[in-house]
Specification:
Length: 610
């Protein structure tokens, strides 16, 4: 480890000297300028806030204070150390009254002050708005230096209830701190007053691709063997800066090298969000030559371009995507509906390979192992759990906006997934299949419909924000038509979710402004577990509305689905003929109906008094 860390320090020095830095610390920083920005969440009456500082110098204190305004006066609530490396402080306030809005300020040395608003819980709002962003490249060669003011101004006008940055906030692979400061100061006028979920993807930790292998150490920057190339302390600093303000992890036990975990849930405004780490536990590629020596005669690699390869051979049943710990978390989260009417799963990337051209539109890629289409068994296992809670999925990473419905055993038997466009990106991707999709909606483009992705996973494509023909000719130069952000609007009374996909430099409040082709898209919450081929249990007629209904297999007690229903009438769907237990209600004493038989057609009705 010492040799690796020394090599890393030399690498930083040499690359900085040869290439130069496009960013540097602001000159002439004064003591009153020490606080750069802060991010916070509120979950189950606990506030967690990470304050980010510029370097602490001249024997200034490595401590800061969080104050709340009460009756016109600032009242100190807690202190926190400023941790190095990274210069971050983590504040925590338990027993928080989330029914009221409150002004806060971070104080350093009684000279630097940073103010914002901790929102009240919008649990009584009819409509909940989430803004989702990803891939924040800043390099001038592809227009990444375009100011973010258009996005920030739109978000301020939109006034979302929650922000989600799904990863790749930083693209520099050696100087996370400088580029993280740039990200935070670019977006601070919206994040200072809005709860923010921020997670970590491969570029944030200094890698082009990441197969985390439960925190293992990778000997190469390509990372194909699995694990992190940068020293563990570098990874810890990144995660501390970007995720320490999230609610406490479901299971805080670290992975290998002492690297922490942050997968957790957040309840806000009547929506429950599962926050996943779909890179950290993902298996590396070293075992691929053992399973398919004819495909990998010279060792493993991260992509396949040969169209004759049968990619079904590439599935390794023991390979992991989410890992057992996160699957257990999702199972437990499925039935936790306290203070929640709808649910959503937040990920770094889509659980499929929804691209077939990458970099330039000149050579079709057959299998891209960086996508979560691999490993197929791990992908299907994860989707089989996620659909149980009727949750859509939202992610980023791909530099290509897509909206798909996943399939496990059959097309359409799992959740919808929305990938937002990049804030700015160089590495373009396209979804441009040779043959039209099957079962397309009327008048839909040929690239929509039912497909097998590169790993032979079943996907139903509804919309794609492909780059234009002009960009194809230019070889992938940034155009603001393929950059942007997503907006997700939840109607809690209707139980519908509308997905907006906006480009850059567009006034989203102007009724004449247009989104990417194919958007907006509105679905029902119940569409996320609405297989084309299913079996029916009896219709439930309940005496009270909005009850939680959980379906289990009678023999194994395995959860099939769990949802807070709309109204009083609900007919559960299942995937197999058989016997089931229906549980109605929350807590430890739900009403249970045993040995309920599913049928292909079922007109039976059960009246249940709550």
């Amino acid at each position: 480890m010492k040799n690796k860390f020394l090599t890393f320090i030399i690498f930083l020095f040499v690359t900085s000297f040869i290439k130069g830095q496009i960013l540097s610390l602001p000159k002439n920083l004064q003591p009153e300028d020490r606080i750069a920005f802060a991010m916070y969440t509120v979950h189950e009456n606990t506030v967690k806030m990470t304050a980010q500082f510029y370097p602490i110098i001249n024997y200034e204190p490595f401590e800061a204070t969080l104050e709340i305004e009460e009756n016109g006066k600032w009242v100190e609530k807690t202190k926190a150390a400023i941790r190095y490396p990274g210069y971050t402080s983590l504040f925590r306030i338990d027993n928080w009254d989330d029914t009221k809005e409150a002004k806060y300020r971070v104080v350093h040395n009684n000279k630097a002050f940073y103010e914002g608003i901790i929102r009240k819980n919008p649990i009584n709002k009819e409509n909940f708005i989430l803004a989702a962003l990803t891939c924040n490249s800043i390099y001038p060669r592809h227009g990444g230096d375009i100011p973010r003011t258009d996005i920030v101004e739109n978000l301020i006008k939109l006034n979302p209830d929650l922000l989600f940055f799904s990863g790749d906030q930083v693209y520099d692979h050696a100087q996370h701190y400088l580029y993280w400061l740039k990200f935070g100061t670019d977006f601070k006028e919206i994040i200072r007053n809005t709860p923010t979920i921020c997670i970590v993807d491969d570029h944030d930790v200094g890698q082009g691709n990441l197969w985390g292998a439960e925190g293992d150490s990778s000997p190469t920057l390509s990372g194909v063997s699995g694990g992190y190339y940068r020293p563990a302390e570098y990874v810890k600093e990144v995660e501390r800066a970007q995720t320490s303000h999230l609610p406490d992890p479901y299971d805080a036990a670290p992975v290998k090298q002492g690297i922490g975990v942050y997968y957790t849930d957040l309840k806000w405004g009547g929506i429950s969000f599962a926050i996943l780490e779909d890179r950290k536990f993902k298996s590396g590629l070293l075992d691929l030559p053992k399973y398919a020596p004819d495909i990998f005669p010279e060792g493993t690699r991260d992509a396949i371009f040969d169209p004759t390869v049968d990619t079904r051979k590439l599935d390794i049943p023991t390979a992991k995507l989410l890992g057992e710990r996160q699957l257990k978390f999702l199972e437990d989260w499925t039935t936790d509906w306290e203070n929640a009417e709808m649910k959503t799963v937040l990920t770094q990337s889509v659980f499929a390979m929804v691209n077939n051209y990458t970099g330039k539109h000149d050579r079709e890629i057959i299998a891209d192992f960086d996508t979560n289409g691999w490993p197929q068994s791990g992908r299907n296992k994860a989707l089989s759990v996620i659909r149980k809670s009727f949750s859509p999925m939202i992610g980023g990473d791909q530099h290509l906006a897509t909206f798909v419905k996943h399939g496990v055993d059959n097309w359409g038997d799992a959740s919808y997934s929305f990938v937002t466009p990049a804030i700015a990106n160089y590495w373009m991707r396209w979804w441009d299949p040779k043959n039209p999709g099957k079962n397309r909606d009327k008048n839909s483009p040929k690239y929509t419909g039912d497909f097998f992705d590169g790993f032979q996973n079943k996907i139903t494509v509804k919309a794609v924000g492909n780059p234009s023909s002009e960009e194809i000719k230019e070889g992938g130069k940034l155009s603001t038509r393929v950059a942007g952000f997503g907006v997700i609007k939840y109607s809690k009374s209707k139980r519908t979710i509308t997905f907006d996909c906006w480009g850059r430099n567009v006034d989203i409040m102007n009724p004449n402004s247009k989104q990417y082709k194919g958007w907006p898209i509105t679905i029902s919450q119940f569409d996320n577990f609405n297989p084309r081929e299913s079996f029916l249990l009896p219709t439930l007629d309940l005496s009270k509305e909005k009850q939680v209904v959980t379906i289990r297999k009678s023999a194994t007690r395995e959860i099939v689905s769990s949802v807070r229903i709309k109204g009083k009438i609900y007919q559960p769907k299942v995937l197999e003929l058989g016997s089931y237990t229906i549980e109605i209600g929350e807590g430890n004493t739900p009403i249970k109906l045993f040995e309920i038989i599913s049928k292909s057609k079922n007109s039976e009705r059960l009246n249940v008094k709550i």
